[in-house]
Amino acid sequence: MRLLDILNLPTFKEAAVVAGEEGLTKNVQSVNLMDAPDIIDYLNDEQLLLTTAYSIKNNPNALIELVTQMANQGCAGLGLKTKRFIDEIPTEVIDQANALNFPIIEIPLNYSLGEMLNEALGCILKERTHELNYALNIHREFTDIVVSGGGFSNIIESLATILSLPVILLNYRLDIMAYSHEIDKDVFFDIYWHIHEKIHHENLDTYKVLTIPNEEGTNEFTEVSIYPINTTNQQKGYIIIFGTTLSNESSFTLAVEQAANVISFEFMKLHALEQHSRRLKNEFFADLVEGAIPSEDEIINRGKTYHLNKSLQYICITCKMDDASELYQNSHPLQTEKEISLRRDRIYEFFESVLTKKFENCIVFTKGDLFTTLLGFEFYNDDSEKNVLESITDLQSDLYQAIDSSMSFGISNYTENITDIPTAFQEAVDALRAGYRENKKRFIKTYRIKELAEIFKTIPSQKLKEFYRSTLRELAYPKDKEKEDLVQTLSVFLNHNCQISETAKIMFIHRNTVIYRIKKCEEILGLEIKGSDETLTLRTALFIRSFFNNKIEKQVL
């Protein structure tokens, strides 16, 4: 209820507004009656105070301070009863209230403050009851739509009818989930990027109004309202209302809030169904890639649900978050688990959204901490491989930009038979491991028929160790942190084509530090790290180091 409406009540009709007339449109949530000197400590937002000013009757400065504090606290106004303890309101108090657009109402002696308080509170209570009944009716209307089998489209259409404005529902990826029939899609896409920028550059947790630039008169709508829809696990969508809204009207806000409540429950129900379906899918493909399904017929029969086709050649792509271990360093494990779960859900949905649009036969599932994709082709050739690599490169970049997740990928060879999918999965995992063994991040590695590690397995271990020790010398078995830093810097330096700036960027150190460490390595190794022969020799020695992993690090030959 506005302060202006309260002044129209019978007990307030003879009251006079002496200051802050521009603030009469303020909302009044409650009315307080008090004369205590520390009254400011007991006042709330949008509250009207009625007082005789008895406690500060001989202190005009205290009245100015009270007006200033009430304005700063967001109170609705001050009703002063004169001719009792103060004859008139001081001019300096009125001037201060006008400067702050804070209403001061002079109350005559006709009615007691108690009568005025009771009438104002009764009116506010009556309006709140009306709003509650309205909210219940609106909620019942939206709930009936859901119970009768109606989905997002019916809810949005009903909301648009209530508001008499076009409405669109977006999910958290800003995909259109539903829209009212008045929406012109071309008009919507003209202003879509304004909405996109607003949502992605601000943490929207409350209602926002977006003004759309309309310099050439090309947009039908110059104002858009964005209402976020939140669920218990994450923000799942936005209600977009086109046109000038009446957001200051309680009925308008209540209608949108009730629609958002019902939609949030629908989002949670949809999420639960998706999680159940995803779990069954993951269980089937976990059995498949582990070789736990004994026959081709069973693979085909169980795989029909997921459009697994025995006539296609499949490649397997495995993917992992590079920074997953860093996320677990949080001191609040339960919060960390929740954040990781939410991020994994977003990555999974991002995979499905992007890859299913680019490839006709695409199956995404998870196994442990691996995001896994099967892509099917009638005939897998060089063009297909090039298309896959380009798509995965784009996906990797998009994931980093949109979700701030560093992801690495391993890609298998293609299968000749559907029963070879477990082999393809293992090849993709091996390719991923090979990239991590080389201390890489955000890489895309394709499995080759015979990886370098397999070739080294054919060489006697003693020969490899001798080559490793003679090449790296003192750096072969670093005994202090300084030499460990030298080895790490040398490895990153070689893996990034001997680029000093790139090495410094990857290791988060100054480029002069890189230059110093590389020169130190050259002194220890007795060579200049310039030619292709030297770098190949060192890269081979460092690969042997990663190949043996911890087996040779502390061994004394």
TrEMBL record:
<dbReference type="Pfam" id="PF13556">
    <property type="entry name" value="HTH_30"/>
</dbReference>
<feature type="domain" description="PucR C-terminal helix-turn-helix">
    <location>
        <begin position="486"/>
        <end position="542"/>
    </location>
</feature>
<feature type="domain" description="CdaR GGDEF-like">
    <location>
        <begin position="295"/>
        <end position="434"/>
    </location>
</feature>
<protein>
    <submittedName>
        <fullName>PucR family transcriptional regulator</fullName>
    </submittedName>
</protein>
<feature type="domain" description="Purine catabolism PurC-like">
    <location>
        <begin position="5"/>
        <end position="120"/>
    </location>
</feature>
<dbReference type="InterPro" id="IPR042070">
    <property type="entry name" value="PucR_C-HTH_sf"/>
</dbReference>
<dbReference type="InterPro" id="IPR041522">
    <property type="entry name" value="CdaR_GGDEF"/>
</dbReference>
<comment type="similarity">
    <text>Belongs to the CdaR family.</text>
</comment>
<dbReference type="InterPro" id="IPR012914">
    <property type="entry name" value="PucR_dom"/>
</dbReference>
<dbReference type="InterPro" id="IPR051448">
    <property type="entry name" value="CdaR-like_regulators"/>
</dbReference>
<dbReference type="Pfam" id="PF17853">
    <property type="entry name" value="GGDEF_2"/>
</dbReference>
<dbReference type="Pfam" id="PF07905">
    <property type="entry name" value="PucR"/>
</dbReference>
<dbReference type="InterPro" id="IPR025736">
    <property type="entry name" value="PucR_C-HTH_dom"/>
</dbReference>
